[in-house]
Amino acid sequence: MTQNALGVIEFVSIARGVEALDLMLKSAKVNLYVATPLCPGKFTVVIGGDVAEVETSLNSALAFGEDNVIDKMIIANLHPSVFPALNATTEFEIGEAIGIIETWSISSAILAADAAAKSANVQLIEIRVARGLGGKSFVTLTGKVSAVTSAVEAGAAQAAKEGILVGTSVIASPHPDIWGVLR
To answer: How would residue 132 be classed by pLDDT, with cut points 50, 70 and 90?
Structure first.
């Protein structure tokens, strides 16, 4: 299956969100990356696949009941490293530095990760989306200090455009125990 787009959709109700998710997965060939309840009683889904399949899947949720949807977005032409980073399955080599970009939303973290990966020679480690974070999300990445710095700046600029950047960090020569926290 071609992976070049993600769909992000947020529902007003957990029950209606799970029901819509079932329809979304039955209506198109997409991969499920995230399906989770969030405070205060919302349900968020992130799916991936070909742009047309992602669009079909999101449209099935809207046909089910647009009044159940808080927000939706399709993000196309993503850097290939975004997809494994969403599942925290990225194989990465320990770099000279760790970069962190923290945002207030799932879609902003995905956009920040994409901008970071496209801007410099870095490896995305993980895009942690909202689980146990009160709706916040963050991106971790690694590489040479200069590349990590450049990538974090690019990702932060993307998130800041939407006004939902929480903060960033670049840690040069991190303590060896830090890597265990990131796996």
So the answer is: low
Candidates 3.20.180.20, 3.90.480.10, 3.30.70.1710, 3.30.460.10; correct CATH number of 82-181? Answer: 3.30.70.1710
pLDDT digits (tens, 9 = 90+) for 42-101: 899 999 999 999 999 999 999 998 898 988 999 999 999 999 998 887 888 889 999 999
Joined tokens for residue 131: 């689980």
Fold of 5-76: Alpha-Beta Plaits (3.30.70)
Beta bridge partners of 169: 100
Half-sphere exposure of 15 (CA within 13 A, CB side): 0
**CA angle 101–102–107, rounded 5-degree value:** 100
